[in-house]
Records
---
Amino acid sequence: MENILVLKDYKTVPDIVHEYGPTLKFGHIPLVIDNGSYQCRVGWSIYEEPHLIFKNLIARPRKDRCKKDAEPPVTPPIQIGNDILNIEAVRFQLKTQFDKNVVTHFEVQEQVCDYIFSHLGIDSEGSVPHPIVMTEAFVTPNYCRQLMSELLFEGYGIPAVSYGVDSLFSMYRNDIGDTALIVNCGYHTIHIIPVIRGKVIGEHARRINLGGSEMISYLHKLLQLKYPVHVNAITMSRIEEILQEHSSVALDYQEEIRKWSNPDYYEANVKKVQLPYVQTASSSGLTAEQQKERKKEMARRLLEINARKREERLAEDEEQLNQLLAIQDMIEDGDTDEFNEAIKGFDIKSYEDLQRQISNINVRIEKNKQRILAAANAEENLEVRPTPGRMQPPSDPEAFQAWLNETRAKYRSLVARRESRRARRAAMAKRRSAAAAERMRVISRLAAAGDDFGDQDSDWDAYKSISREADSDSEADGERLVELEEALREYEPPPAADQRHTTHQLHLAIEPYRAPELMFQPSMMGNLEAGLAESMEYVFKHFSPEDQLLLANNVFLTGGCSQFPGLKERLERELLEMRPFQSTHKVVKAKNPSLDPWYGARDFAGSNEFENWCVSKEDYYEMGGEYLKEHYASNKYYKSPAPIADNNLAPAGDANVVKEEIVVDC
Amino acid sequence: MTGEEEKPCFKRENKFIVKSGCKKRMWRSLKQILTAERTLLWPNEAVLYYSINAPPTFKPTKKYSDISGLPAPYVDRHSKLFYANVEEFATVRSLPMDITAGYLQLRGANNLVG
């Protein structure tokens, strides 16, 4: 096949511990951490590239369940970021410090920080002596920043920290001027942030609560539902790969899906993704022929054992009979004394008893002999009888093919009949369907039927047609179906190896467009928020026409999910649609949508003014954890207001309730 | 895991990591944090997390076939699935309950009444 996509199933490489040279150790070098909800990128501000890039995830294996006293419980180590070699193996133990795009789980964050600092090789005693530039979500709640500062200052003893917004860093990194409409497509959210003359207009920014992770889980579920057989082979990581490498944004979604409804277009453009395929060995490594042979052999052996047992019993009985006959002879010879002696040994009381026993044994011997005879005959039969009920194909290849086709046709017609019967029964169960009406008609005719009902055999079929239960016909059909199925399974030539591969392929048609389209139509997953284009239009409306034009001429696309092919073109089309006639617009894509925030933050840390934008340890103790030094790429700082005192709360309900007396006229 | 043993040298103490067996601190979810934030009297100009949520959509939502993604003019009254043409209808009717429920959940339409 020409266009089969093979999944690469990327493996992570565990991070090395980087060298912590004297320049770093004593240089007071700022450390730049782009703490994103998808990936964390960490590096020193004096280097060009980040040292660590890893998924912001940890896998905490569950404790050993076997609690033996002998050995102390061994806890497998926590795996963090790139330590997780096989993410699917620990999928259910994964944890992240993020809730949406905000850090909320600081125990996990601390573990991630430990990972970061130890992999950078930091070995100074008792503290991390570096100022830190940390990215945070746009409008991070103060509560979260406070905990982050607490962790950094008190947990790691850092001298200073500066917080910034990833998308703003990315914007300044790309040097596109100081007025832009940032569209930041992230892992959990899409932000639309207007920046005018270097000023972030926060009150008109908007956030769509949807991102890459939602697209992944959407596509994941979609394909699992489409291919229920491969539920376990369709993993999140594979979906992520499909989304990253084979998906794109449609320029015009309606037009795109209209194209796909044409079967020829579908055939020509469908993407086939090969799932790993393992040649399944037949259950015991034996062919059907061998299994049959083995079964026969076992049956024969069983028969032999039975026959031997019967013969042994026969010999035993004959022996006993001889003894008893000898005793009978004694009494006939008149040896009463000897007889009395002998019957004591045999537990016989009298002559009558003896005779009864002899006749019993005779009967037994007779029966046994008959059985042995019957068994021998059966054995002969087993050799010759060609298992009745089984379908026997003709041996001639041409006739065999004809027979096979015929069997298939029979099978199909039976299945069709069963389906139609099922459908009829299902329809009959419902009221007001045609089938139910027909049933009622038959019933009423039955009631009105005269005495001649039953003269013809076909009269009785009326009962079959009104029965809601499975009737004898369906039972007979069922048996026949099983028979045909067996025959087909046995004699149908096995599909060729490459054909069997095709059953392990995912056919992707609209799906690679469908998942990214969520950005524009969140309603597809039941999210009632406006999509990206509509939200942009909404944001534009809040500005004067001049500013609108400025923003539209500098739409800046950044964030990991902005890397879908076609997204830029789609945004341009949407802008053309929403902007006034003949006005201009321009979409700029970040040079490196994933890493530009880190580069931007690195530039920031290297600037001369960096010191002034840092929250120092003194500031932290003075102003509290939520405090933030504002700079060009930061959030705005609003001091948290004091909690409202209790007496300011809404007065107790009673005072406000106007009591009305209701007079009821009698 | 015991906190002390694994503590890296650059730390004096673990701040938030607790020893296994000790009572775990419950971390507030984002939703709880936002609710708490909302109860405070913020100055008017303050922009908070919840105040920049995207507006609800004003455009009519388009219907797509649940199984193929094609534009879907029809709804199967029985399973409530959208479908695009006759062949799909046959497929929809043959789907087992768990699959139809899965499709509805994917579309966020599983808890609608009626």
---
Amino acid sequence: MTVHNLYLFDRDGVCLHYSEWHRKKQAGIPKEEEYKLMYGMLFSIRSFVSKMSPVDMKDGFLAFQTSRYKLHYYETPTGVKVVMNTDLGVGPIRDVLHHIYSGLYVELVVKNPLCPLGQTVQSELFRSRLDAYVRSLPFFSARAG
Amino acid sequence: MAIFSVYVVNKAGGLIYQLDNYAPRAEAEKTFSYPLDLLLKLHDERVLVAFGQRDGIRVGHAVLSINGVDVNGKYTADGKEVLEYLGNAANYPVSIRFGRPRLTSNEKLMLASMFHSLFAIGSQLSPELGSSGIEMLETDTFKLHCFQTLTGIKFVVLADPRQGGIDSLLRKIYEIYSDFALKNPFYSLEMPIRCELFDQNLKLALEVAEKAGTFGPGS
């Protein structure tokens, strides 16, 4: 099992943080464009799903999978979106994404007066803690580290 | 019953078949006195709740009937405009039934082509080589399963998250499509499927799949 990459978006679609671990293929477009494409896709999926749903939804969109990877999605009531791509063997990881938000982003970025909100997170502490947390996950494999 | 609907999308993203197999009823009826303590608004020719969620009536629900008379769009079946009728104190007390608005055929066409693009973007943003598009999309109320054939036709099934056996159902639908749409001499490729045998066999396959899938909402 593997973690490929992780995106963190704020409510306006700004990519606050991006990191990758085992990513074999790049999208073939500049990173900034890729963030926009990813955010746009999630935005559309959200509206698609809320229209398609036969009953009223609570959490809404949770995850999708293709033949090669699985995208996990978590959104807070304030509109911060945590997106993690893993391989197909990983089950529901809502608690992990929630921890990245509440245990790392809120603690190290929102509560840090030196980190301006609404732009890419510069905090080295946040980056290293996030990296350590993701590497410690049970489904993060060390292969090709 | 746990398979909600089936969509067939051609390789250009056009919807060529749609079937609503089962729609759970989420409706709430309540008697109101003047003034109405909900804020209603007109959206896409429908009267929706904009504010004042209560008693099972949720924001986004549409007015389905007033005093037992059905509402079509912004008019009641007997030709009165809904917002005008509800704004008049003389008509109260009034009993209004709310529920999730049904998708119109235009919306279904739009959603099908929207999924077509999401499918393509899903494969473009893949971190792994050789990825297909979205095969399964999970939400808390339903799962969307998609199977794309080699010729580019997409079969999409919306089912309860606990419903099993959808992968074999998708292949079965492909088989039914090949047998009863493609082999029908009056069917033209990429065009909407209007074949009686296709309809019948699809409904049969859905019934079988619902029974075979181990966990339905009723179990």
